[in-house]
Every structure is written in C-alpha cells, then in structure tokens.
Automatic annotation (TrEMBL):
The keyword 4Fe-4S applies. Its EC number is 2.7.7.7. One of its GO terms (biological process) is DNA repair. One of its GO terms (molecular function) is metal ion binding. Pfam families: UDG. This is DNA polymerase. Residues 102-234 form the Uracil-DNA glycosylase-like domain. Keywords: 4Fe-4S, DNA damage, DNA repair, Hydrolase, Iron, Iron-sulfur, Metal-binding, Nucleotidyltransferase, Transferase. Transmembrane segments: none annotated. It is an enzyme of class 2 (transferase). The keyword Iron applies.
Length: 242
C-alpha cells in the first residue's frame, strides 16, 4: 500500500513540474529571504573553475543526414540517449513546420510525438487550419523527454543552435513554435511576449517566419487560452500561399 502511495506522490510531483514549466516558472527560489539588490562578490578562493568545452562537431548539411545524426549521435545537448530519441515526422516540403518542446511521458513507448490527450488536441488544432500530421513537418526541441519534464537551462543555447539548423534544412514557409522553452531557444524571447506577431528567423541565410503559441499540454490545463491559440493559428496561415 505504501509503495502505491509513493508512486502517486512521484506522479503528482512530475505533473506539477510540467505545469510550472509550461507556465514559465523554471528558476528555483530558496525559502530563506535574500536581498537580490545586494552586491554579490566571489573571491578568488571560492570562484569556480571554468572548463573549456570542446567545439561541437559540425552538423549535417542535408535533412536526411540530420535525421540520421539524431538517431545515431552518442551525445546530445538535450541529454537524450541513443536509441530512445523520437525523430521528426510528416512532410518536410509541406511549407509548415511545427516544433514542440519535448515528447510527452507516453511518447517513448508509442514512438511518436504527442500520443496522448495533448496529441488529440493538437490534431484538432491542425484540422482547424486544414492540416493534419501528414501535411506538416513535426519535430521537437528535445528528442527525448528529460527527467521530470525539465529542459536544462545550461544547454538551451546549444539546443537552440541545433534547432535553428534543423529549421534551415527543412526551410518551411511558416514555423509554429509551441511552448515556452521553444520560444526561448529559437527566438530568445519569453512566450508571453512572442505571441501575436510574426518573427523572422534567419539561420545561415535560410529565412522563415515564426509564430509562437502555447503548448498543447498547457491548453488542456488552461482551456481559457484556446481562443488565444486560435488567433495564433490564423496568424500562422494568414497571407501566404502553401
């Protein structure tokens, strides 16, 4: 009986972590009060050593090669493990690319992104703009779900570089970014500020326009924001021929 209760506690804790990340809360705060305006000095004796990381290997310059790299690379910035990653799917020449932050908990066993209730909502969102999963190119920022559903803030810059290279190879006409982590990685902007406008994304001369909106899991938890998401979808397809 105790083991079952512990499992419920763990499940509830992971669910809470997902909720706070979707809401944009990703910085831990100590329980003891702190004067954030006070000057903080680090002495030579306590300053941490700075390690110089090796330069990352060059990324493949074709989309097929990039897919193979995702599957076979031993180490990924997002911490995903070889053989457990979920590859992009759909039609890379459809003109629309959709990027979510990470797989959902059930996606690893299913072998595909958004295989749960959030996926059913996602399918309805695509249907509302006359699309389905086969007629968009669908990928994730993290290729495997991180432990606890938390992206690593220290890795977000490298993850963004990889994602922008991915976008440049796919060369969509429009890009839909779903969730806070994706907005930060691709646009360098908080989701709440990024919404409601088209953003130019230019990587090595490859240009596209991006629209930021809420992750499906957040819309399930906050259904009042579905009207805002619908406006984002109309912006995504507005004024362009596919």
């Amino acid at each position: 009986m105790q083991a079952g209760a512990d499992m419920l506690d763990i499940t509830g804790a992971l669910s809470a972590l997902d909720w706070w990340q979707s809401a944009g809360v990703d910085t831990p705060i100590a329980e003891e009060p702190r004067n954030w305006l006070a000057e903080h000095r680090v002495t030579a004796a306590t300053a941490p050593a700075i390690s110089v990381a090796a330069a990352p290997a060059a990324l493949p310059n074709t989309l097929a090669g990039f897919h193979q790299w995702i599957a076979e690379a031993p180490d990924m910035a997002d911490g995903s493990r070889q053989g457990r990653r979920i590859l992009p799917s759909g039609d890379a020449i459809s003109g629309i690319m959709v990027m979510i932050d990470m797989p959902e908990p059930a996606d690893g066993a299913a072998g595909s992104l958004l295989s749960d209730d959030s996926g059913r909502l996602f399918d309805k969102m695509l249907a509302a703009i006359g699309r389905d999963r086969a007629s968009v190119y669908f990928a994730s920022l993290c290729f495997e779900r991180p432990i606890g559903g938390q992206t690593n803030p220290a890795a977000i810059v490298r993850m963004g570089e990889i994602a922008r290279h991915h976008i440049a190879l796919a060369a969509p006409k429009r890009l839909l970014l779903m969730g806070q982590a994706v907005s930060r990685a691709i646009l360098g902007t908080e989701l709440i500020s990024a919404r409601g406008k088209l953003h130019g994304v230019n990587h090595d001369g490859a240009k596209t326009e991006a629209v930021a909106t809420f992750a499906p899991r957040f819309l399930i938890q906050s259904p009042a924001r579905k009207a805002d998401a619908w406006r984002d979808l109309r912006l995504l397809i507005g004024g362009i021929e596919f």
